[in-house]
Design the sequence.
């Protein structure tokens, strides 16, 4: 909030927010002629669609005071959007503007009276919202003045001509430091205490209460080499504080978090154990040489040809020692080709050679070569650098100026000394294009510093793609990129080791001094990097640390765990994660942030601390911070990488890591070239899809399009001349399908985007330490690729195992920076009946379903709110899935810790294939296609197991008695399941009846579980039963008993008949029930089903209680089953027994709830907000019941739609996490007496015996026999066509308000159930005067009636939006002198108007004569026109 004062003294309290589409009307009203002359004639809606950032300033009445729009390229066509940097650099070379730190103002409007204050407030807010931003440019015609408002924040820097016509444009600039400058960081002093304590106490008093009033002063005084405190100050006052410490408990972190991508936060060490031990490889064939056969195999033990370069002064004896040097312990190296150069370092063209032993093969005075027999595989390329701590290897080399050894699979090109950086780069480009080259293209960068060995005797070694010196000769100081190739980059931790003897220390010391000296000289001559106005951060210093960047590449390390907390890991060549955990022997390379606090006003500049604190620890490359899960993600850690915890991690904190190189601002995004091939190969070398990426990379460089002609673009991210990221996009050729099947119009106005502006994101890989540049990378793809939208599909892929981890199934590390797009419900079209009026094939086709993620230009600078709270859902019921779906599809929220505990993991595995008959009935909440369209596995951790206990004190769930899953919020959605029936034990030889046997209906079966007894509760259970049937001889011999009275019992019998089992061997046994309501509750349908059972030969028994299995003997397996009835008992032979009797809460679930002291009264007791008696535990679904204080025991969640219950549960919890929602106020205790009533349809359907397709849809009600319902005076109207026996039955119940309340279908033919479900709640007049037509006998078949083209709009997913819009029109007061239609209705009801005609005629006349008819017609026609791709069968004015 800010306060603006006008020149006349008026005061307005204003706040900034993102511009919304509904602001367009007000923005247009603020436009003036001067605005059009300054910015041109603009389409505001189009401009907002393409804007990177649009900001609106509102007052406390939510009236728009000002608006500004910013894009990442200039307006007025003075430069191409993909090439404006060079133009502005020529304008003023002193302004280091780059795409990362620059935006362009394309529009500014404001209320005239407050325009100056509004302009300054918007500019300040923009700089605050985009920390990387340093310059805002404004381009206007040169003959125009800026006026009195904009001139207060912009200053002119020059003129630029237009590209299309002869006219100059003036360029103005606005600098960050004038509005929201970077913070000055310095060491803390004791006198800062008084400035900082109010900031601490504003947030929390715990530190003061725990450590005393002067804890901060004591902390500042206690600084030493390991502990430092720093502050940021503004105008001499400390406004922020950070305490850092170099003591880090690495063993604890190694045990809890997967730090492999960051090399365990340790300095690489030769004794690091980075891979699980492998079995000794087989001995080589006769004649070939095996090196260090007693050493374990390493990634370097692969075939290849190598080149070793030595100083010209090296003797033959030294060369032999150098060959031995490569045989040091633990790192077995293939035999190599050793070369001695007579002059400055030279490149030797190599070819496959084979020699026996080590022989001198070239006696030339200028070159001596030693060759070793070795098999060559040119596909394997490896490069590394070596020394050894075994001093005997160096004993014969100490007398020669040997400074460096390079092993490479390619000849190394000669590099010229003393050249300028630009000349060296040009030479590299020419060399790279000339032929064979080093995998990293031999490119040269800033001089690197390689510090001496630190603690533990190891110094940091450049990883793949890093820079190292080659040679110590005068005039030959050059850097050559050492390419990685080998295996996993983490294995590249080979390091320079400290040499014990004084001679070797002197050599290395001289080498390091030489590097540092030359590095300083070259750093001064390099081009300026893009970081500006920073006194604390130097890219030239941080680029020196980039040598460790490569060793932290996330995708090179196969994570042993995964979490949705981090972006889905790039898929590696490992199928399943192993339980092996690396061992790191090197010294710690990390320091931690112990305490951090900053004034909210300056929080956006939190990252300014990092450059200074890294300078305090020059030997550390990682900064870490841990925060509690429930702590909202603050600005500082948004630039950190969240570390993936191990599955067994029970810490209550999340760990974040920041690498020193993350401070670099010299990132450049550009189109890829052939010269980038080595860097790209390095980046993706161990990814599962690396061949696909490299194929697209090569295809782009060769043809710029796919073989099918689709335009293709590949971009690379480059920092310090190293490739750290790659992205590939294609033109989206299937945009019509995407628009019609996904709700992308929730994010864009589709009509404002050209077809070629839609792109398909194929690949995206980015080094994780630069992950905070992901959105910038995407923004640059839009600018350079001339795109406005990107789409990324995630195809379904099931994962089995105890733990199912989230993964994107395709290659992208940007998934969490995209927004998931909800799929759209599709109309089932009668295509044959529609003919030429049917939708296009691009819309109506049904390819492989996939989940879609999306981003666009508007989203590139819009942050997501990260929620780290551990939300654990127990049970993959429809309620639980709906709950997770709602959270996942919250576009502005990112839930990092969603976990599902389920007996069989996520549903939707398609175990039963496309088989329509799937044993169990459906409630039409979700099907296999819906699960594919959601891809919950990309966002949710899945623990496969059963909840066996809840530790409320520790907030932990025990799974399968041995796994611990911690939680902050626990959601119980286990539902109820069919249970193993408990036999009464009655001996049928005594001829007992049901009245004479004990009631065991509530008793739990504790005996031996028969192997051929099946309780079907989910798809996995059905698949097991199906496997049993197909693997046994049941279809030809065995008898099957289906025990139950539920609809699932009928659908199971139909499935068995469909599988080929004769009806004479199927027995349907109905146990007695207390309810008078049958599962179908429709006599006509029940009669048809019973007739079908008799016709199929299925024997049905009613009121039969299970007495014994196998006459009381061993029940495993079941051979016979005995039953009692109200008359006489009977016995049936049995090969399979299906128990579908009654659903109850599982005993293990009940025991876990009861032992946790959760209130349980037949079901788990909850209140109206889903709370149990534990505030951290909520529950929903059929597991629950409402508390008795509501006096509504007949109403439970079982009466409502499971999908809606899950949605409402999520909505109740979102208020805890979403700051954009107003907090929910709890009602007073005496008013909390009403239970919520939900309106979603209650549905059941399936295929019943006789191959009847059945569907029943109704509003939520307390179950009542149909005959009783129809006997009510206010029942309404029943509309029935067809007969149940013939399979043409269709029944609609229209209530007294003419609203469809119940739908029942029974058909021999499949029907579009999803269409018919939409009929519920529709007024009969909406259905083309249904009641009147039926009364006039114009409707004889409702199936045919609802395939007519007029009704297809009713089935459209946006028809409900049209209804709401029309109702809003009728409720609004469009004419000041006349009441609205809604007000007229109320006046008629209250008898305030005396009518001479019926109310209907009066209202119709008013509607026809007023503006409402025009508005309604316009709205309906707009709906049809906008959705014409789905509804081409409708006509509207202008198309005929």
Sequence:
């Amino acid at each position: 909030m800010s306060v603006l004062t006008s020149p006349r003294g008026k005061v307005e309290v204003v706040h900034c927010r993102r511009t919304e589409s509904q602001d367009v009307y007000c923005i247009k009203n603020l436009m003036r002629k001067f605005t059009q002359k300054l910015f041109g004639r603009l389409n505001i809606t189009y401009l907002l669609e393409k804007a990177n950032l649009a900001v609106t300033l509102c007052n406390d009445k939510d009236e728009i005071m000002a608006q500004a729009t910013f894009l990442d390229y200039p307006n007025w066509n003075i430069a191409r959007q993909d090439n404006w940097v060079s133009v502005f650099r020529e304008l003023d070379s002193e302004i280091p503007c780059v795409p990362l730190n620059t935006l362009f103002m394309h529009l500014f409007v404001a209320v005239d009276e407050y325009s100056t204050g509004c302009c300054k407030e918007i500019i300040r807010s923009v700089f605050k919202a985009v920390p990387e931003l340093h310059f805002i440019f404004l381009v206007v015609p040169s003959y125009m003045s800026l006026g009195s408002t904009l001139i207060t924040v912009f200053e002119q820097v020059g003129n630029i001509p237009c590209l299309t016509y002869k006219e100059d444009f003036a360029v103005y600039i606005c600098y960050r430091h004038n509005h929201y400058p970077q913070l000055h960081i310095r060491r803390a002093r004791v006198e800062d205490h008084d400035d900082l304590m109010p900031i601490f106490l504003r947030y929390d008093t715990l530190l003061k209460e725990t450590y005393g009033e002067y804890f901060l002063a004591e902390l500042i005084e206690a600084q030493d080499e390991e502990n430092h405190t720093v502050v940021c100050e503004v105008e001499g006052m400390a406004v922020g504080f950070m305490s850092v410490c170099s003591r880090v408990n690495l063993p604890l972190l190694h045990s809890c978090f997967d730090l492999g991508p960051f090399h365990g936060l340790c300095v690489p060490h030769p004794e690091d154990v980075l891979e699980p031990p492998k079995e000794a490889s087989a001995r080589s064939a006769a004649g070939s040489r095996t090196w260090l056969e007693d050493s374990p195999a390493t990634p370097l033990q692969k075939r290849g040809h190598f080149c070793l370069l030595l100083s010209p002064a090296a003797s033959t004896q030294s060369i032999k020692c150098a060959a031995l040097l490569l045989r040091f312990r633990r790192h077995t190296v293939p035999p190599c080709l050793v070369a001695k150069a007579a002059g400055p370092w030279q490149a030797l063209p190599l070819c496959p050679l084979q020699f026996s032993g080590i022989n001198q093969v070239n006696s030339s005075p200028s070159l001596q070569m030693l060759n070793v027999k070795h098999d060559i595989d040119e596909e394997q390329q490896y490069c590394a650098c070596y020394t050894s701590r075994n001093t005997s290897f160096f004993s014969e080399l100490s007398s020669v100026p040997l400074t460096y050894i390079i092993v490479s699979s390619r000849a190394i090109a000669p590099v010229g000394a003393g050249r300028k950086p630009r000349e060296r780069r040009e030479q590299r480009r020419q060399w790279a294009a000339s032929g064979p080259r080093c995998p990293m293209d031999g490119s040269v960068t800033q001089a690197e510093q390689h510090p001496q060995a630190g603690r533990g005797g190891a110094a940091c070694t450049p990883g793949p793609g890093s820079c190292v010196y080659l040679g110590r000769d005068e005039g030959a100081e050059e850097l050559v990129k050492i390419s990685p190739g080998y295996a996993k980059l983490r294995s590249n931790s080979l390091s320079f080791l400290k040499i014990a003897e004084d001679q070797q220390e002197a050599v290395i010391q001289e080498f390091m001094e030489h590097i540092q000296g030359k590095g300083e000289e070259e750093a001064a001559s390099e081009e300026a990097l893009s970081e500006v106005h920073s006194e604390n951060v130097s890219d030239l210093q941080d680029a020196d640390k980039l040598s460790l960047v490569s060793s932290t590449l996330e995708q090179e390390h196969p994570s042993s765990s995964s979490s949705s907390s981090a972006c889905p890991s790039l898929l590696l060549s490992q199928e399943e994660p192993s339980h092996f955990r690396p061992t790191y022997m090197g010294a710690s390379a990390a320091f931690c942030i112990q305490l951090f606090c900053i004034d909210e006003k300056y929080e956006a500049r939190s990252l300014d601390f990092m450059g200074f604190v890294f300078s305090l620890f020059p030997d550390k490359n990682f900064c870490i911070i841990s925060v509690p899960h429930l702590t909202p993600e603050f600005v500082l850690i948004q630039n950190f990488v969240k570390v993936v915890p191990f599955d067994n991690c029970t810490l209550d904190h999340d760990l974040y890591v920041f690498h020193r190189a993350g401070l670099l601002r010299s990132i450049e995004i550009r189109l890829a070239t052939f010269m980038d091939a080595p860097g790209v190969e390095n980046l993706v070398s161990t990814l599962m899809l690396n061949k696909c990426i490299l194929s697209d990379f090569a295809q782009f460089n060769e043809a710029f399009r796919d073989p099918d002609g689709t335009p293709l673009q590949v971009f690379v991210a480059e920092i310090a001349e190293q490739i750290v990221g790659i992205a590939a996009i294609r033109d989206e050729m299937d945009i019509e399908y995407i628009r019609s099947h996904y709700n992308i119009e929730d994010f864009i106005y589709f009509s404002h985007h050209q077809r070629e502006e839609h792109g398909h994101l194929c690949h995206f890989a980015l080094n994780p330490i630069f992950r905070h540049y992901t959105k910038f990378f995407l923004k640059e793809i839009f600018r350079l690729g001339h795109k406005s939208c990107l789409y990324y599909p995630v195809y379904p892929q099931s994962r089995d195992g105890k733990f199912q981890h989230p993964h994107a199934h395709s290659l992208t590390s940007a998934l969490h920076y995209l927004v998931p797009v909800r799929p759209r419900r599709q109309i089932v079209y009668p295509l044959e009946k529609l003919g030429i009026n049917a939708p296009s094939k691009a819309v109506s086709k049904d390819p492989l379903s996939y989940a879609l993620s999306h981003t666009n230009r508007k989203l590139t600078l819009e942050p997501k709110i990260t929620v780290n709270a551990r939300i654990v859902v127990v049970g993959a019921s429809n309620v639980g899935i709906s709950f997770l779906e709602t959270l996942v599809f919250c576009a502005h929220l990112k839930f990092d810790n969603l976990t599902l505990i389920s007996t069989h993991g996520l549903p939707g595995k398609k175990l039963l294939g496309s088989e329509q008959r799937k044993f169990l009935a459906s409630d039409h909440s979700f099907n296999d296609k819906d699960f594919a369209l959601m891809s919950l596995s990309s966002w949710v951790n899945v623990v496969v197991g059963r909840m066996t206990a809840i530790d409320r004190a520790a907030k932990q769930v025990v799974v399968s008695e041995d796994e611990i899953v911690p939680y902050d919020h626990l959601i119980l959605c286990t539902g109820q399941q069919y249970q193993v029936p408990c036999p009464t034990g009655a001996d049928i030889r005594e001829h007992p009846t049901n009245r004479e046997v004990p009631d065991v209906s509530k008793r739990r079966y504790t005996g031996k579980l028969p192997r051929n007894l099946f309780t079907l509760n989910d798809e996995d259970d059905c698949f097991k039963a199906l496997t049993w049937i197909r693997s046994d001889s049941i279809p030809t011999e065995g008898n099957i008993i289906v025990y139950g009275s539920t609809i699932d019992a009928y659908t199971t019998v139909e499935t068995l008949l469909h599988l080929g089992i004769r009806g004479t061997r199927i027995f349907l046994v109905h146990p007695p029930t207390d309810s008078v309501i049958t599962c179908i509750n429709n006599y006509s349908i029940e009669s048809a089903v019973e007739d079908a059972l008799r016709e199929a030969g299925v024997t049905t028994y009613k009121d039969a209680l299970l007495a014994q299995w196998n006459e009381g003997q061993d029940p495993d397996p079941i051979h016979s089953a005995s039953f009692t009835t109200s008359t006489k008992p009977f016995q049936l032979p049995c090969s399979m027994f299906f128990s579908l009797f009654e659903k109850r809460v599982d005993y293990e679930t009940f025991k876990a709830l009861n032992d946790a002291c959760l209130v349980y009264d037949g079901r788990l007791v909850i209140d109206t907000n889903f709370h149990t008696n534990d505030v951290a535990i909520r529950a929903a679904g059929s597991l629950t019941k409402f508390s008795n204080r509501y006096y509504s025991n007949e109403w439970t969640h079982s009466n409502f739609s499971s999908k809606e219950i899950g949605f409402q549960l999520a909505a109740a919890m979102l208020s805890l996490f979403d700051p954009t929602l107003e907090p929910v106020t709890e009602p007073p205790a005496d008013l909390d007496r009403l239970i919520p009533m939900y309106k979603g349809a209650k549905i059941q359907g399936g295929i019943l015996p006789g191959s009847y397709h059945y569907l029943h849809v109704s509003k939520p009600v307390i179950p009542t026999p149909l005959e009783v319902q129809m006997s009510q005076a206010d029942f309404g109207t029943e509309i029935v066509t067809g007969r149940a026996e013939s399979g043409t039955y269709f029944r609609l119940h229209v209530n007294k308000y003419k609203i469809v309340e119940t739908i029942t279908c029974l058909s021999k033919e499949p029907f579009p159930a999803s269409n018919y479900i939409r009929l519920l709640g529709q007024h009969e007049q909406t259905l083309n005067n249904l009641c009147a037509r039926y009364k006039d006998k114009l409707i004889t078949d409702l199936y045919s009636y609802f395939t007519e083209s007029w009704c297809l709009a009713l089935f459209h997913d946006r028809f409900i939006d049209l209804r709401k819009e029309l109702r809003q029109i009728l409720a609004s007061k469009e004419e000041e002198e006349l009441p609205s239609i809604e007000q007229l209705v109320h006046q008629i009801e209250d008898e305030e108007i005396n009518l001479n005609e019926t109310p209907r005629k009066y209202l119709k006349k008013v509607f026809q004569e007023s503006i409402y008819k025009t508005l309604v017609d316009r709205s309906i026609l707009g709906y049809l026109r906008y959705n014409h791709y789905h509804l081409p069968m409708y006509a509207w004015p202008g198309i005929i």
Q: What stands out?
A: The radius of gyration is 37 Å. The chain is about 25% helix and 20% strand. The longest strand covers residues 722-731.
